[in-house]
Amino acid sequence: MQVDIGNALAEVATPGIPREALERLDDRVAAAHARIEEGRANDEHGYATLNQPDNVDVDAIEAAVEPFADCETLINVGIGGSALGAATISAALDSDVEAYYLDNVDPKWVADHLDDIDLSKTALNVVSKSGMTAETLSNFLVVREAMEDAGVDWTERTWVTTGPEGNLRDLAEKHDLPSLPVPDGVPGRFSVLSTVGLAAAALQGHDIEAILDGARDADDALGPSLFDSPAYAYGAVNYALDQRGAGINVLLPYAESLETYAEWYSQLWAESVGKDGVGQTPVRALGATDQHSQLQLYRAGPHDKMVTFIRPKERADTTIPETDLAGLSYLGGSTLGELIDAEFEATEASLANAGLPNVRIEIDRVDEAAIGELLYSMEAATILAGELYTVDAFVQPAVEWSKKATRGLLGGGDFEEADEVAEKTELT
Ligand code: PA5
């Protein structure tokens, strides 16, 4: 993975980072790296994320999914960090097993999905670190009932991935379901390179060792200077641009298969650094599609944002058929890959010409190793950013607040958060 920050510098962009400022920031990166290394050495909460590639029990994951080897479909029930990492890998890599990620609880959407799926050929993975999340447990109960209605023994088709306590753990014990543990010290949104993200990948036939090798490569590249460490360069530049007014970061992958990666990154960054009145807002976009919509704003609107391009250098390609239609002959014989690449280059140059800061992340191709490297690198970038912002990247009090309020409102316990909502509702 290469990260090019040239278009984020003050000589190109406004806002942009003066070279001297980047050098000063590098001292803070060195201090942050030392803190991160210390946290890793002690397996501290959150920092332990970066030790995951060497801690994953690949054999246990493969053994857990082996009984479901005959399945044609995977339903992953989970939300937030218990869905987006696995969904990112599923979206990036081809598989014969189709995966559905039931995270939201929109009733029509859930019902439509269940109508489409042959539940007798489905493996169901229920994922919740806390084992208490209302959306996940509700969707599980809905899928379970649909399986029962279809005459499918759900206990034969289900495994759970959860922590040591909680409703889901109780359920697994009651029904003697196979289960995988969620590792300690790894917050939900940082858990993709663990049982949480990798079991679905294993079920879909992906080489999870290769994903972890990619992550290890990214780990090897971490060091005390942003000038030598692509992941830290990215985290530090985002932070420095945010400090200078680029409070929005538009993720613009030029690969359909990486759209979910942008979604995963958005969760990781927003939930980790968005607290104590600071944080940069991630926005998901897609090249070349959004060239025909949002690009107008990015190029000509306020300079309150940066754009992150993600580009695979190689891809499977399709030739555009020759045509004698007047004016279209220039397309014939080219490929769709050449076209999307030209669009990427044009957009990058156009934003640089307009002085909008942008960063280019390149991978050789979308494969297991690159996905592992991309996932790990953004986890490291986010952890570094947490140090630079001086926030605790590993907590999510606002998210927990809404989880408690939801449970309380549905009668799942006494929560002052639910009382607050009730009071507000009475006032309006
Ligand atoms: O990062 C986080 O902590 C959250 O996004 C959680 O992953 C999400 O709320 C789901 O939580 P759980 O896995 O406990 O069901």
From TrEMBL:
Major location category of this protein: cytoplasm
Catalytic activity: alpha-D-glucose 6-phosphate = beta-D-fructose 6-phosphate
Residues at the active site: 271 (proton donor), 292, 403
EC number: 5.3.1.9
Database matches in InterPro entries: G6P_Isomerase, Phosphoglucose_isomerase_CS, SIS_dom_sf, SIS_PGI_1, SIS_PGI_2
UniProt KW Transferase keyword: no
TM segment ranges: none
Tree of life domain: Archaea
Top-tier EC class: isomerase
Listed GO CC annotations: cytosol
Key words, A-Z: Cytoplasm, Gluconeogenesis, Glycolysis, Isomerase
Cellular localisation: Cytoplasm
Signal peptide segment: none
MF GO annotations: carbohydrate derivative binding; glucose-6-phosphate isomerase activity; monosaccharide binding
Pfam families per the UniProt record, alphabetical: PGI
Single biological process term from Gene Ontology: glucose 6-phosphate metabolic process
Pathway: Carbohydrate biosynthesis; gluconeogenesis; Carbohydrate degradation; glycolysis; D-glyceraldehyde 3-phosphate and glycerone phosphate from D-glucose: step 2/4
Its job: Catalyzes the reversible isomerization of glucose-6-phosphate to fructose-6-phosphate.
HAMAP family linked to this entry: G6P_isomerase (MF_00473)
UniProt similarity note: Belongs to the GPI family.
Protein name: Probable glucose-6-phosphate isomerase
Gene giving rise to this polypeptide: pgi
